[in-house]
Specification:
Layout lengths: L2 H15 L6 H8 L7 H17 L5 E4 L6 E4 L2 H4 L8 H14 L4 H10 L18 H13 L2 E7 L5 E14 L2 E8 L4 E6 L8 E3 L13 H6 L6 E7 L4 H6 L3 E7 L2 E9 L5 H6 L4 E5 L1 H15 L12
Antiparallel strand pairs: 1-2, 3-4, 3-7, 4-5, 5-6, 8-10, 8-11, 9-10
Helix pairs in contact: 5-6
Length: about 325
């Protein structure tokens, strides 16, 4: 853990544990930080840390100190901590599936805690696929985001070609079982999103801390969504093993069958972004409509069976 990250964590703990606002002098005593001989320099460091915590979502509050003319600081627990959540059996099953897809160490304990929150006994489904994630990549990028340092890494594009990237990392976000870093691509001088599981080596930070500023109008969700395109209704013939996954995605039976499999309709699927989800279901689904998506799925399967062929379709960087 870097010195700055450790300092921010300890400052958050100190502000959470206090029952009354703490002055900067009291925070110096509790944390051991901000002890520069130059009081103005100590104040500037504290103000930067306070603003950093607020950008990260920590509700640092300024309030008067009782029986004093000074201002103090604290983090109200009710605003910081998540409210208790009541989950249905179906929601617990969905979370259990996510844990099994992405978890390894500690998975049994996590599943036991999830099952304990279900109102009724719930069967946790076995996933047919698994998401592998490099913890080192997440840690390296997260540290660079906090310190505002640029990073370099090798990257494999969707078409299979490799290259090097230099990026100012603004944020790390998870979308549909994949982690992305969103930031300014130095080569293109434009906002881009990069999947962490396509990095071919561990990201390396370079340059100074606070080397860039995150844009005030940054829209992380839009950055990882790719090109705007309306969703389309999709018809799938679904094997028993995949019915739960399709119903969880919003699929509804049409009353039709195809090769003895029930046909489901899923409204508003993205014509290329949701293709990977369909491919993840493997042989347990058959795309019936629209033809464009069916052809794209067939082409993607052909590309998998014939290494070296160009990957079909296009995806965001």
């Amino acid at each position: 853990m870097t010195a700055k990250v450790e300092r921010l964590v300890n400052l958050t703990v100190a502000l959470l544990e206090t029952r009354r606002p703490l002055t900067l002098r009291e925070l110096k005593q509790r944390t051991g930080y901000y002890d520069q001989a130059d009081g103005a320099a100590a104040r500037r460091m504290f103000e930067r840390d306070k603003d950093e915590l607020r950008r990260l979502g920590v509700p640092v509050t300024v309030a008067p100190v009782p029986h004093s003319e000074e201002q103090g600081y604290l983090v109200p627990r009710r605003e910081y901590e998540l409210a208790d959540i009541e989950l249905t059996g179906e929601e617990v099953a969905a979370l259990g599936l996510a844990v099994r897809l992405t978890g390894a160490e500690g998975t049994p304990l996590a599943l036991a805690k999830l099952a304990a929150r279900a109102p009724d006994p719930v069967a946790l489904p076995e996933p047919t696929t698994r998401v592998e994630l490099s913890v080192d990549a997440v840690d390296a990028i997260a540290d660079a985001v906090v310190r505002r340092r640029s990073v370099r890494f090798g990257y494999r594009r969707a078409d299979g070609t490799d290259g090097r990237r230099a990026v100012d990392p603004f944020a790390v976000v998870r979308r549909r079982a994949a982690w992305y870093v969103v930031g300014r691509d130095h080569d293109r001088d434009a906002l881009r999103a990069f999947r962490l599981d396509r990095m071919t080596d561990e990201p390396r930070a370079f340059g100074d801390d606070d080397a860039f500023t995150v844009p005030d109008d940054l829209d992380v969700e839009r950055a990882v969504a790719g090109p705007e395109e309306e969703g389309v209704p999709v018809l799938l013939a679904v094997a028993p093993a995949a019915r739960w996954a399709v119903e969880l995605r919003g699929g509804a039976r049409t009353g039709r069958t195809h090769a003895d499999w029930p046909v489901y309709e899923l409204p508003g699927l993205h014509p290329w972004r949701d293709r990977s989800w369909i491919l993840g279901l493997g042989p347990d689904v058959v795309v019936l409509d629209p033809p464009r998506l069916r052809d794209a799925v067939v082409a993607a399967l052909d590309a998998v069976l014939a290494p070296g062929a160009d990957a079909p379709g296009s995806e965001p960087t």
